[in-house]
Amino acid sequence: MKKAALALFLAFTLNGCATSHYTSGRDFPSANVPSIVKGKTTASDLKTLFGEPFAKTPVNETDEKWVYTYANGSAHAQSYIVTMKVTTTGTQKTLDVLMRNETVINYTFTDGPAPGSSTATE
């Protein structure tokens, strides 16, 4: 009986779990992306539609890259006596905008699962 109680105690103490949540960037309204018109949408229009960009990078004397990005998710680790299972889930969206003289000349938008969302067992 003592061995069974000890085995049960060890099973509970060697078994554990942890969950971690994360966010990165600044959330922005994806529904406004179709409102962007190349050659017409201005820097002021973008700020009205999405707010300030997460990052601005000069490309040359007339061009600048604006980046709107947001990611959120969680990681859950379940530890067993001999193995560990790790599950990560999340979403990520990025809007890259190329500005020339304060006007949009090109943009790309991606939205989907965050890279690395998966389940792994070790």
TrEMBL record:
Signal peptide start and end residues: 1-18
Keyword tags: Signal
Domain of life: Bacteria
Protein name: Lipoprotein SmpA/OmlA domain-containing protein
